[in-house]
């Protein structure tokens, strides 16, 4: 047996990868599982997006290798999207790099900037991939607390007390996953000032800003942010294109150039048809967001009712694709709580612990299930 690389000792299989095997096994046994655990949109892209891909198949350039930087038209569409929706001006040639999903951007950024032993500020709770990628590249996670009493925002006094001399990168994500905390421009201004003071690369992971959120924001709206910051964004949630794997990293031109050095050695460009579909999606007007949010509003109302059926207290201020809820008094293990519900009521919910130790005592519901299925879940507790 060939031994695996030592870096694999630093990570475990992604929670949803292993847990969904258990869910599929229960389904194969005939159990009527309702999956509210994972944020994979069940809605479809727009008709214009699908037609753009179909038409692209007839283009003589459709099936060859594509540019590592994506089609110029795609980068221009991303720049226009940021101008129109966030009032952020970006140079499509130097400040935007299309990605095969924003998740790969986490790896590319880490490979481009982190040496072994460098430290990375990671939110607790937060997206687990920040930790796993940090470990894979030999860097050291340093967790900073996000707590409900502080509206799931960083405590800057606590941050300033840390030894930050080895910190190279700080991950943030607002609207926040998993809690749905909105963040604010004032918060972004504090974060940019903090990053400048300590010479840290600040990265905002921003895939949820159009879901149930009447005030989409970008870190790059802050004056001077591009001196120290990047932003990741994605078409997965906003345009129901999760499986298409289309994302982008935007901001500091020198950082984008460094990331391109990594990316150009990792893939051979995004499929032409997908790029054409992405261009069509990015041209969507306000009616698209309004239509999606009408659906998500109805789902959220029902999901909050479901959480309350479980005697959980919903974080009502949350936006985005999830409902975050506090477990009932006396319940000490989120994982035991959701496992009991999975096996007794055939409902899968994500335990807050998979997002960090500050997620203990909480659970997360995804709004990726049709209303009638959420109502069915509610009925199972009557």
Describe, in plain words, how this protein is organized in 3D.
- The model has no long low-confidence stretch (mean pLDDT 93).
- A hairpin with a 7-residue loop joins strand 9 (313-314) and strand 10.
- The strands form three sheets. This protein has a seven-stranded mixed sheet with strand order 2-8-7-6-5-3-4, sandwiched between helices.
- With 382 residues, it is an alpha/beta fold.
- It has two domains: 6-44 and 287-380; 61-284.
- It is globular, with a radius of gyration of 21 Å.
- Helix 3 (72-86) packs parallel to helix 9 (272-282) and helix 10 (286-309) packs parallel to helix 12.
- It is 38% helix and 15% strand.
- It has helices spanning 15-28, 47-56, 72-86, 102-113, 128-136, 156-161, 185-198, 253-263, 272-282, 286-309, 334-345, 371-379, and strands at 34-35, 96-99, 119-124, 140-145, 167-172, 201-205, 229-234, 247-251, 313-314, 322-326, 347-348, 350-351, 362-366.
- It has twelve helices and 13 strands.
């Amino acid at each position: 047996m060939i031994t695996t690389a030592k870096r694999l000792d630093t990570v475990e299989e992604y929670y949803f990868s292993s847990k969904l095997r258990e869910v599929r096994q229960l389904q194969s046994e005939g159990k009527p599982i309702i999956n509210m655990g994972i944020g994979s949109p069940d809605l479809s892209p727009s008709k214009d997006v699908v037609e753009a891909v179909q038409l692209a198949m007839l283009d003589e350039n459709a099936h060859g290798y594509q540019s590592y930087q994506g089609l110029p038209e795609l980068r221009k569409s991303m720049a226009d999207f940021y101008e129109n929706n966030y009032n952020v001006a970006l140079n499509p040639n130097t400040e935007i790099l299309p990605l095969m999903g924003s998740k790969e951007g986490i790896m590319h950024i880490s490979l481009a900037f982190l040496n072994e032993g460098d430290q990375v500020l990671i939110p607790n709770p937060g997206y687990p991939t920040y930790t796993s990628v940090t470990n894979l590249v030999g860097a050291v996670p340093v967790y900073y607390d996000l707590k409900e009493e502080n509206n799931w925002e960083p405590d800057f006094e606590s941050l300033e007390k840390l030894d930050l001399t080895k910190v190279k990168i700080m991950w943030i994500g607002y609207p926040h996953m998993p809690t749905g905390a909105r963040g604010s421009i004032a918060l972004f201004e504090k974060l940019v000032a903090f990053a400048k003071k300590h010479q840290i690369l600040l990265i905002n992971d921003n895939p949820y800003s159009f879901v149930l959120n009447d005030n989409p924001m970008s870190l790059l709206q802050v004056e001077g942010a591009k001196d120290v910051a990047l932003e990741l964004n994605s078409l997965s949630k906003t345009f129901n294109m999760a499986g298409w794997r289309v994302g982008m990293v935007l901001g500091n031109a020198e950082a984008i150039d460094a990331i391109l050095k990594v990316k150009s050695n990792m893939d051979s460009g995004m499929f032409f048809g997908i790029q054409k579909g992405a261009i069509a999606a990015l041209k969507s007007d306000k009616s698209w967001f309004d239509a999606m949010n009408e659906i998500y509003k109805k789902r959220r109302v029902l999901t909050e009712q479901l959480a309350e059926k479980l005697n959980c207290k919903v974080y009502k201020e949350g936006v985005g694709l999830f409902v975050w809820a506090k477990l009932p008094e006396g319940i000490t293990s989120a994982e035991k709580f959701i496992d009991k519900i999975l096996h007794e009521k055939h409902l899968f919910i994500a335990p807050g612990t998979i997002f960090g130790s500050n997620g203990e005592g909480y659970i997360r519901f995804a709004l990726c299930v049709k209303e009638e299925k959420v109502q069915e879940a509610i009925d199972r507790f009557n």
